[in-house]
Amino acid sequence: MINAIRILSLLFMVFIMPVQVLGGENTTPANDEGHYRACLNMAANNPKSAFDEATRWESLGGGHPARYCALAALMGMGKYGEAAQGFERLADAINSSAEFKAKILARSAEAWLLFGNTQTALKTIDTAIRMSADDAEALVIRAQIFAAMGAFWEATDDLGRAITITPLDADALAFRASAWRQLDVLDLAEEDAKRALGIMPTHPDALLELGNILRIQGDLAGARKNWRAVISAWPASKAAQAAQTNIELLNVAKK
User: Fold this and answer.
1) SS3 annotation, 174-216
2) Cβ contacts of residue 116 below 8 Å, gap of 6+?
3) In the chain, N or C: fewer CB atoms in 10 Å?
4) Are 87 and 110 in contact (CB under 8 A)?
5) Dist CA 146 CA 139 (whole Å)
């Protein structure tokens, strides 16, 4: 249930801390937002080079923006434990609102989750949510942690809160569909998968999940149709790989 690709996409594409907030007292030219965004883009595509650049930038006075980029690069390099601790230290160090500190703590929780330390991840995200109760992304992260712990009812509760805040989040809807399926609440699972597809008709996880639900319900033709749609729309995705495996298993079962 840990969707590492989703977590990293949130880190690199959705959550970009304003450079003014991270910068604090550091006002050197190296802190400009263009440099910061370029560094984060590099972290998503070439994390080792981004880490080297962020370290160099920090030595020139890049301050908290450079440190944030270095930690993002560590995430991209798979050094989740080191990144988790670094994000915690950064949250303590910045002089900003509770809401922004909470967002950095959420990054730490993501890293702890990917590191495999779910208890510390849960403790960290609980702190973040206490600081910023209506942060939909933090609620989704806690749902990821609950799911990794097998606590699917708790996951659906947090996803419900997140979806109330951001009702057009197809990722959250597809995720909740999967959680409902784990709980064998297939009517709600199907409803959420279809809602996600209503927002994004080719959403890979929603198509995969709807196929899984239909298979359980005995609609094998419908399951195949959705799995093939994943493979057609997103041939290189993890969802397509899972869909292909599911189709092969159905073919074996027919023999």
Assistant:
1) HHHHHHHHHCCCHHHHHHHHHHHHHHCCCCHHHHHHHHHHHHH
2) none
3) C
4) no
5) 10
pTM of the model: 0.86
Tokens 């230290």 map to which residue? 89
More confident residue, 78 or 8: 78
* Sequential DSSP letters for 22-68: HHTT---GGG-HHHHHHHHHHHHH-HHHHHHHHHHHIIIIIHHHHHH
**Do the Cβ atoms of 239 and 229 come closer than 8 Å?**
no
Least reliable range by pLDDT among 19-28, 50-59, 68-77, 174-183: 19-28
Return d(Cα 65, Cα 19) in angstroms, integer: 6
Between CA 70 and CA 21 the distance in angstroms is 17
For the cut 70, the answer to whether the pLDDT of residue 10 exceeds it is no
- Tell me the domains of the chain and their CATH numbers: 1-117 (no CATH), 168-255 (1.25.40.10)
User: Does the pLDDT value for residue 84 go beyond 50?
Assistant: yes
